[in-house]
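Hey,

Quick one before I head out. I ran the complex with pyridoxal-5'-phosphate overnight. Inputs first:
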Amino acid sequence: MKNNTKLIHGYNAFDEMTGASSIPIYQCSTFKQISIEVGQPYTYSRFGNPTRTALEKAVASMEDAEYGTAFASGMGAISAVLLSFKQGDHLVMCKSIYGGTFQLVNEALERFGIEVTFVDETNLSAWEKAIQPNTRALYLETPSNPLLSVTDIAGVVAIAKEYKLATIMDNTFMTPQFQKPLAMGVDVVIHSATKFINGHSDVVAGIVVTNDEAWHNKIFLQQKVLGGILGVEDCWLTMRGLKTMGLRMEQSAKSAQIISEMLENHPVVKKVNYPGLPSHPGYAVQQKQATSGGAVLSFELENQEAVFAFSHALKIPIVAVSLGGVESILSYPVTMSHACVAKAEREKQGVTDGLLRLSVGIEDTEDLLADLEQALAAVKVAVKVPVER
Ligand SMILES: *Cc1c(COP(=O)(O)O)cnc(C)c1O
């Protein structure tokens, strides 16, 4: 079964009891038991709820995974996974990591004595060099945010296997539509389902999927005892959103590719970061491990003045944090995701005053292109001579 068929039929998408064409919302905290003597599959909604189970199975099926666990947010999912390590454990993580994960590591895990080393994710030998006797796992996220750097998944997995370490990966940017880390040997995959999986900017949700029973048992326990479960209505909305993930991703990624090519050739754009462009340093690796460059790109204008002129002129994309919605979303890391990072530090990371991130929605490509072009025309500082193509 291919992805779009699987999104509709590849799991229990219909209610077995009534035939209802969508899984009902089981709005209950507890379940009347058949008798006091015998157990039954559902007893209390924190432990399990049929609506949540349906979503967990649906996302798991898209990742070709055995198990899924749904959390109240992507951060809830990441916390549950990382808090399954113990005092004295060490993890190696890519340095270009989601801001919330970075804060979790530095402000919470540290208090529990779980130590993390950050490495340049594009350099495989840096991953290997960071391994210590107490290292338990390698944690990656590719492509990264907001610079879209690409990590070689198979390369990191090979190192992990050699040292008998687990691999954990945040697959939010690509989704299982474009990238399947479990098939490449990753042990645990995490999604902020808030983004492309739900896809409509109306739910905050997280999902963990795995094929490893021991890992699943740990994560299931965390879901139960930390208690950060996803509410049933949000489970239902996420399932509804998931059904069109394939169509949305294909449209958004097609536009992202065309927009990146236009930006790369535009005289006021200094640099474009999109792993679907042959000029991207991670292009070859991306081609090997994913079927698309995805729906998120970032680009650099000359300075903040150019950014303001551009964003004031832009009409279609909404200016907001987050990504992965049906609507295009323009974010400015300097005042949004990286507002708390000191200027010198963020510039060292490549987050300059001219950097903008665009999450491409499902609007018509021609309309997006025309809008971006007219907004770029409002930018007066040309930084390069256009390249002949
Ligand atoms: C948004 C995001 C998260 C956090 O997810 P929430 O649902 O906001 O908690 C984690 N990783 C990546 C890559 C994200 O984009």
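The mean pLDDT is 96.

Talk tomorrow,
K.
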